[in-house]
User: What shape does this take?
Amino acid sequence: VVALIASLVVLGGVGIAQRRFDRKLRDRQRELNQQLTVQVEEKSNALKAQLEEQAELERVVADKAQVEALGQLTGNVAHDFNNLLQVMSIANENMAHLEKTNFQASLLEGSNRALDHAKSIIRQLLSYARRQTLEAETIRVSDYLHNTRTLLSAAIDARVNFVVDDLSDDALIYVDRSQLTTSLLNLLSNSCDAMPDGGSLTLSVRLGECTAGKTVGTRYVEIGVEDTGSGMTASQLEQAFEPFYTTKPEDYGTGLGLSSVHGFVQQSGGDIDISSELGKGTCVTLKFPMAEGQVAGGTAEKGRREGMQGLRVLLVEDNPILAKALEAMIVHLGANVEHQPTGDQAAKRLRDAHTFDIVISDVRMPGKLDGFALAKWAHTNHPQLPVLLMSGYNESVDGGATVMSKPFTQADLLEHVQTLVA
Assistant: This one.
């Protein structure tokens, strides 16, 4: 009996020990499962964040590629349209000097208004495509704001409280002054449209520095336009810089404003940011690299020739319709003109007989020599022969060449020729 009792006691102790062990094992398994769950969740979150970052990067790259492709297409279309507008401009300008009935005069006036509107749209398209001709100069931002404040203020609705907050500290930027003014007027106008019942509008200037990317350390002048207007949704923000996109009513503007500002800023070596919240307003910030050197000043004007009377002009233009119109314009101004359709043929003509006072050439042409290459060739082989280039849109100006934007008037042509031919 004693032995049996002892055996039962031992077995009971073993059972208790087993239950304790099982309980500890379950607790340990539960602990390990919890740790594993936390680790899996952390890994899943990290992977999710990585996938989201990758997706965002791919979206940014795709958007950039789309914008570049659209910009290339836009620039090419604008170039071709400028050639057509140039022909129309020459025709309208010469018809203006003819005797007309009241009806014909009215038609011509309407045609000129339509032509001016078309020129404006093409300029905005070229700005979006970053292929407009910029006449950049070094300007002091504080002086610029002082000189243009009256003009900028005139664009502000009387119900809007307009404030200029300039902390530029005499910083310089290298930009096209007129394009900067046009861009700011565009942004100010957009802000006023977003505040039909009034509000606050601030034009601020700050100094900043790039802290990431290839331009890290580059110092910027940041010009911001901030309003308390209706703001934009996230989807509207994504499309804000696309050409022809607008949040305004139908038939109210072209939708080219922000896209042209975007193109101008990027062509100037800068960047643009936009932030907005529905019902709380919008802020657009233009970032221009800080420039060094001296503010551009007036230079002595070269001696000018009176008109184009008797000049021998070599015209180089591959578009036959435009070439005929330009020939007529140049002859009308009193010059003698010979036409060559390509830069290669023009160079051959100059090698055979250099009997010209000036070369007027298109930029984009088939063959080995485009306009810039022809200008460089002429400078090397005939250094005294001036070359005036015509461009439907602007590529990078090479070697200090003089470029005249299409469409141009007779007065524009005369001014450029008189400057080049003493």
